Amino acid sequence: MKKINDFFWFCSGAHIGTLKRFPTEHNKYVGIGATIFFTALFAALSGGYAMYFVFSGSTGAVFFAILFGALWGLAIFNMDRYIVSSISKNASTNKQILQATPRVLLAIMIGIVISRPLELKIFDKEIRQKLKTSYLGGQRSKLDTLNSTFAKKYSAELGKVVDLRAERDSLTNDINRSRYQLNQEIFGDKTNQTSGKMGYGTYAKQKEAVLSQKMARLEIVRSEMAKMEELITRRKELEGIASERMFSSKQLDSLANVAGFADRNWALGQLSFNNDGSRDLGTYLAITFIGLLFILFECLPVFVKLMSNKGPYDIALQNVEDSAVYGSFKDKDADVAVVDGVHDTKVETEIDKQKKIIRGRSARELENYSWD
Q1: Which of 242, 280, 282, 322 makes an SS bond possible with 236, Cβ 3.0 to 4.6 Å?
Q2: 3-class SS at 90?
Q3: Residues 6+ apart with CB under 8 A from 250
Q4: Who contacts 43 (Cβ-Cβ below 8 Å, separation ≥6)?
């Protein structure tokens, strides 16, 4: 338990040596440290999850996710620890609020950043379904565009195929009708189109000749239509239309699995809207409240520090800092005095040296001086 307390005190950024002297303050800083630690933990999970989708499909995706998650969590941990430890309880309330304001804004930004990847994980099932719908609609739109462009480019050929099909259908109906009338003529059925005489007579031969002409024309039409359809099929292969197909369920699952962070983030935003473009209030509120929860969690260490009363630890810490500042000034005075003393000694020594040099030089000059 002692090691856990020491660890959370370290996370809170407290001066452990001073904090140990005041047992009433221990739990407060354990709570602050635990909040900072778990915020960093959520940040690590969030960053790792986001990076996993950045490298999704790569063999090193898990490695990069763990590495980035650890680095991101340590960065958030260090930042939160600094934010909380830099707020002084010995300042006035207004000054504390002023100190905390930019830190709260930074905490809000951090909360937004770490909450988004976790929201992506929470709504993973809904995001996958939205992505499948999006990919399916995109493929359908692509096929429609390709077919529309192809239809404009080869409108004459497609128009001829349509005409040939219409003629084929018309000839097929006429042949069936003519064949029925020929049978009626041969069996002697009396109608507006038959003579009523049984046997293979003149009228039957005439109807058979007409039938043969129509059948010959039908073969020609079918042959021309087959050539045109083959031509259009080759053109579709060259244009890349023949190879395009609507995605299967397996393909959609695969695409959703390898979707990047940007696609998943877009899909999460689209969950807040219905198909008709209206706001889906339930999903919107759920996403919003989850984001606000993480933002509040990120701001919580700062709020706890601001709301807590000024305790003996804060006073003792201020005294330690004041003593350190006072000692620093005294050390400065001592250093200045030493520098002054050393400088005076240097000056005095130099003066004595110069005096001796001058006396010696004067003595030699006197010895060599010509008195005549």
Answers
A1: 242
A2: coil
A3: none
A4: 72, 73, 75, 76, 77, 110, 114
